[in-house]
Design a protein that fits this description.
The protein is built from 16 helices and 4 strands. With 480 residues, it is an all-alpha fold. It has 2 domains: 124 residues, no CATH class; 339 residues, Glycosyltransferase. Strands 1-2 form a two-stranded antiparallel ribbon. Strands 3-4 form a two-stranded antiparallel ribbon. The longest helix has 21 residues.
């Protein structure tokens, strides 16, 4: 809406129709709150009243606006502001949620209604944050779930054979995660089946980072998967109603999805192999290292033909990571940044992810270069640790929980112990203090989307901090 002064006044007779605004007939439905289309149209009429066609309109709907819309445009008398809010929320849920309460499905909000008005305005109004802004993304369910799995595995809270975390309710995480795998070719990118996207919603697109994260999480849930010699869909996997054969088939499809998008330079891009026209099409060190982790954890659980392909892909990936390592020993990631560092590069994120990937047995066995490049990366992390024990996105940047947790996890995986243990102790102490012993986890805007859009995720400091502390504790225990 242009501003507060442009809001129409509430008439004395609430049945009076606002001049110049199309009025729908009074609502006769037994449950008018479920008529999303009526609310959507009313919001558009309200926001564009007296605004010349083609002028920009800034949609900001507050509680008073919903009440006025309810009274004037929906043809309803009486009611309170809270009732108006509840009715609007109910209409939106009814339009975007399946009867079983499944996640939002925005497919029905495409296009325009019979009057030519866009159907998604009501959704945008409901998505506005309290400060008047809109989030870049509203759902990273699959991504943050896989990150949480890694953190919980580190503290021993994943408890097979049920494949659950603590006393999690059915369906199990294993079953849920398998359901998120894309089973058909994606209509936008034409990526083959087998990958995972960032969300369980229909708008998610299969990508390398989420596919790698899902594969690592699946392996954490299935550490005792029988050897590939067990054939057939009836092979038991623990006590689940899910066969080992089916689980292995799903994992193999994900591994092959990653193998197929590996670029000619040996690196892994985000969505598809060899596009190259946009920044996210190119190979990225952080994505390549994450793929190495996924290939590593599943290598011994797949058939020999797939193992051979993984070995070859790992050798090419290590060669790529060695070539793109910066002269100072660091790596720059693609999807994460830091506003306090020159060029807004988050070298701590990139270096930590690559050091972790190069420390895997698969990478070390693939090429001696993995050890050489990995040691240089470890040296960079040690050199950039702040005097207070934390890490920021690069030298001189303020420390964050996320970046400190990532650095700790990488150093804990490093094969060379020299200088690492002291750095782990100092970093862990900083994390304990920064989180008030785990009771507060303020997020930092380290996420970087298309068009240089920065974001923070409230779970990042929780899962990254916990992963760092858990891996540091395990590594320090081994040296005592």
């Amino acid at each position: 809406m242009p501003d507060e002064s442009s809001r129409p006044e509430l008439p004395t007779d609430t049945r009076t129709r606002a001049e110049g605004v199309r009025m729908p007939d009074p609502v006769n439905s037994s449950n008018p709150a479920l008529e999303y289309g009526r609310w959507n149209g009313a919001l558009i009429d309200y926001a564009t009243k007296s605004v010349p066609q083609g002028s920009p309109v800034f949609l900001s709907v507050d509680e008073d606006a919903l009440w006025i819309i309810r009274q004037q445009f929906l043809g309803r008398e009486g009611g309170t502001t809270q009732q108006a809010i509840d009715e609007f929320a109910a209409a939106l849920r009814h339009r975007c949620l399946a009867p079983q309460g499944q996640p939002l499905d925005l497919a029905g909000l495409r296009g325009t209604d019979a009057a030519g008005r866009p159907r998604g305005v009501g959704f945008l109004a409901a998505s506005a944050r309290a400060d008047g802004s809109w989030p870049i993304d509203t759902n990273l369910t699959t991504w943050v779930t896989t990150l949480a799995m890694r953190a919980l595995e580190g503290v021993g809270r994943i408890s097979p054979p049920q494949g659950t975390v603590e006393a999690a309710d059915s369906p199990t995480l294993l079953e849920w995660l398998l359901r998120q795998q894309h089973k058909i070719e994606h209509p936008f990118t034409h990526a083959r089946p087998g990958g995972w996207g960032w969300s369980d919603l229909s708008g998610a697109v299969p990508d390398a980072d989420d596919t790698s994260g899902a594969l690592v999480a699946l392996r954490a849930l299935a550490p005792e998967l029988p050897t590939p010699n067990t054939q057939g869909p009836n092979s038991p996997h623990w006590e689940l109603g899910l066969g080992a054969w089916e689980l292995r088939q799903s994992a193999t499809a994900g591994l092959e999805w990653l193998l197929e998008i590996q670029n000619a330079d040996g690196g892994i891009p985000t969505f598809c192999r060899g596009w190259g026209a946009l920044p996210f099409d190119r190979s990225a060190p952080d994505l390549t290292a994450h793929a190495l982790e996924a290939w590593n954890v599943w290598r011994d659980a797949v058939v020999s033909g797939v193992r051979q392909r993984l070995d070859g892909a790992a050798a090419r990936a290590v060669a790529y990571l060695t070539r793109v390592q910066r002269p100072d020993g660091s790596w720059a990631p693609l999807w994460f940044g830091n506003e306090h560092v020159a060029g807004e590069l988050n070298l701590t994120y990139g270096t930590a992810r690559v050091v972790t990937g190069l420390a895997t047995p698969l990478a070390r066995n693939a090429s001696p270069a993995a050890n050489v490049s990995g040691r240089r990366g470890v040296a960079w992390l040690l050199d950039t640790q702040r005097l207070d024990g934390g890490w920021g996105g690069g030298p001189g940047a303020p420390a964050s929980i996320e970046e400190t947790g990532l650095a700790l996890a990488a150093l804990a995986a490093a094969p060379e112990p020299r200088g690492v243990i002291d750095a782990l102790r100092r970093g862990a102490a900083w994390l304990v203090a920064a989180t008030s012993e785990g009771t507060r986890t303020p997020p930092a805007p380290i996420g970087l989307y298309f068009a240089r859009l920065w974001y923070y995720e409230e779970l990042y400091p929780v899962v990254m901090g916990l992963t760092g502390l858990a891996t540091a504790r395990s590594r320090m225990a081994l040296t005592l």
